[in-house]
Every structure is written in C-alpha cells, then in structure tokens.
Design goal:
single chain, mainly alpha, 17 helices, about 0% strand, binds fe (ii) ion, 2 domains
Length: about 300
C-alpha cells in the first residue's frame, strides 16, 4: 500500500470526527508571545497564570530532577526566568498537548504514551546534540509530538485499535505495520491530518508523517532521522508503550544512521555501544518527569 492511499484513508477517518481536540488558547497565545522580538517575561507569566493547570504543571516540571534547580522554585515568574525563554516554549507546548489529550486514550495507558513521547523527545535532543543539529529545542518538540496520531486512533477508534494491538502481538509486528494491515493507514498519516488542522510548522508535519519512512523526508531529513533513531532506541529500552511491540534494530544498518553519518562524519568512528550507553542515562529521568507531570494533574484537580 502506498502512502497516498494511506493518506486518503486517514483523511476519511479524521474527517468523520467533528470534536478533534484543540490546543488550549493560552498555549497558542504563549507561543505567539514568545515569537515576538520584544517579549517580556512578566507578560508570559501573566498569561500563563490565567491557566491554572498549565501553571501547576510548569511548577512541577521545573522542580523535577530533569531540570535540577538547586533549591525549590515556588513562583511562576522565577520558574520562567530559570527556564529561559526557549524552554518556556518547550514547556508550554508540552503541557498543552497533555491537556489536549487528558480526556483519555482508550486502550493505551496514558502514562506509557507520555513516557514514550517524552523519552523520544529527550533522547532526540541528546542525539541532535551529538550530530551537531542546530536547533535542540526543535528536536525535543519533534520527538514529543511524533506519535500524535496514535492518540487519535486509540481515543476515537478504540475497537479497531484493540484489533491492531492483538494483530501486532499475534504476528510479532511493528505497530506501524500492524496498523497498515488492519486499518489501511497508520498513525503517521492520521497524525499529519491532525498536525495540519493545528497548523503545525511543516518540519514538524514531516516528522509526524515520515518518522518511520525517513528516506522519504525532504524538508528536514536530519530531524526525521534523529527522531527515528530516538524512537527505535526508546522502543528497545522500555519506553515503548509497555513492551507490546516487536522491535529490534541494528543501528549501523538503519537508514537514519546513514543519513546522520553523512551529516556528521564524526559518527562514523563513534563507538555505538557507548553511544547507546550514554542514551541509557536519560531513561530514569524521563520516567521521573512523567511521574512529576501526572502528579501535578492530580494536585491541580483535587
Ligand atoms: Fe511512530
Ligand atoms: Fe514512537
């Protein structure tokens, strides 16, 4: 089945849904404010304070071991100063995605979904740094959103999704291949439909569509390759939706590795085992971050 057919099928499925989740208005406004050249941190803080859940999550995230403040940070403005403007964008977008999907993810365990997404985001950032990719924040965000389509399938098509999972386990498939066989489309095409409806920048749309088919990437193949490797890495390191998918990979045989090697010749002589070993350090941090974010949800809501 080619990608055009799968795209048509995805458009049909997404087109049927008239209550697609939206990104919270505050998040969009924060992102717009951060894009203006003379942004003042107080304005961002005031805007974020209008959204209690977002504020609670930012405070929890900033105090989690991932960001490692030297002492507890108790005011939002201090938190924003500590984070710096670039990271605020990261946090605002991240918290808003969680909000968009907190209604439930069907057969998916929402914690496992976010563990995978944050894992791929954080590991993407590390890989991006190693290959000298200029925009680390972009790599992080691309990693976080790469599997957005998965939430749609699980949330809006729970019965079909349960069949996809059963088929995947029965035949030891990758999730992507099982979706293609059972649904006639995958989370990549479906995710693209959502990213379009949210007006995501093109480079992110491409990651969502091509992170399993990196050789088809044209806008930012390096970004796609970074996310692809990060995804594979997380899949074999327990940040993988609960060990249900059948994934094995040999880094040096991956198309994404070839793309990155071409871009960063230093990788050619890199000790692959050491490379993976360094990435392993990120795993406990990711689990801690997800725990801290979800405990903030409980606090904000009780
Ligand atoms: Fe994926
Ligand atoms: Fe993934």
């Amino acid at each position: 089945m080619d990608q055009n057919q799968m795209m048509e099928r995805a458009e049909q499925l997404v087109g049927k849904i008239d209550d697609l989740p939206t990104i919270p208005v505050v998040a969009t406004q924060v992102l717009q404010l951060l894009d203006s050249p003379d942004v003042v941190i107080e304005d961002v803080a005031d805007l974020m304070l209008t959204d209690q859940v977002m504020t609670a999550r930012v405070m929890k995230m900033i105090n989690s071991p991932v960001y490692r403040p030297s002492h507890e940070i108790t005011s939002l403005k201090r938190a924003l100063v500590y984070l710096g403007l670039r990271h605020i964008r990261e946090v605002a977008l991240t918290t808003s995605f969680i909000k968009a999907f907190e209604a439930g993810t069907g057969p998916f365990d929402v914690n496992l979904f976010w563990e995978h997404s944050f894992g791929v985001g954080m590991v993407s950032k590390i890989i991006a740094q190693k290959v000298g990719y200029a925009d680390l924040e972009k790599a992080y965000i691309a990693g976080i959103i790469h599997d957005l389509g998965e939430v749609f399938i699980s949330h809006y098509m729970p019965d079909e999704f349960a069949r996809v999972l059963a088929h995947m386990e029965q035949h030891q498939l990758k999730l992507y291949d099982s979706e293609a066989e059972v649904l006639g489309t995958t989370h990549c095409e479906i995710g693209l439909c959502m990213a379009r409806s949210w007006n995501f920048p093109e480079a992110y749309q491409e990651v969502i569509l091509q992170h399993h088919t990196v050789d088809a990437a044209t806008i930012d193949p390096i970004l796609c390759a970074v996310v692809n490797l990060s995804d594979l890495f997380c899949s074999v390191r327990g940040l993988n939706y609960g060990d249900r998918e059948w994934v094995s990979f040999n880094l040096q045989e991956e198309q994404a590795w070839q793309i990155l090697k071409h871009h960063a010749p230093a990788l050619a002589t890199m000790d692959v085992e050491r490379f993976c070993y360094e990435l392993d350090d990120a795993v406990p941090d990711v689990q801690e971050l997800v725990r801290s974010i979800f405990s903030s949800t409980e606090q904000a809501e009780h």
